[in-house]
Model the fold of this input.
Amino acid sequence: MNGIRDLVRDIFIEAGAAEEWIAYEPYLPGYYRPRKRWDMAVRYKGVLVAALEFKSQVGSVGKNLNNRFEEALGTATDTWAAHSKLSAFGSVPPWLAYVFVLREDVETERPNRSISALFPADQDFKGKSYSQRYQEMLRRFMIDGIYQAGWFITTRQDESGRVSYAEPLAEATGKAFRAAVKYRVNQVRGLVD
Done:
């Protein structure tokens, strides 16, 4: 993930952030817990420009999908609670981003098992592969304002070992992510400068 992290750093710099604004693996305050280590944060003149999580999944997707979901939701929920209940980030609300890389394989692309539950489950998940479920998770996070931006990347390795990538979620491509970063950097500079 260091390569992806460095690419994201470069996107912030291209958008007008300076290298010294960027912190790697910083702790940010929480509400339900005292603090949480994020993968990257961008800060300008005391304002949190962005907090970013970078996650990947290679194999054992069925065992780990719920853990990734709960971790992503919990991290963002705790950060938003710290802002709304403690004003932890001052007068400028946080801007959270989630970057996810999934290796495509037979397990991630196969339509999935039952979604039956004790009460009726959301039928939008019926028949979706793990990859599609991850995409839906990120799409809903962004629609509901839990995360303000996302980037969803899938990778595939062919028989010769060559790796290719795709961006199957239109709302979470590199292009969309780059535009969101540029908007946020300009927004914060406009508020602070």
User: Anything to note?
Assistant: The mean pLDDT is 91.
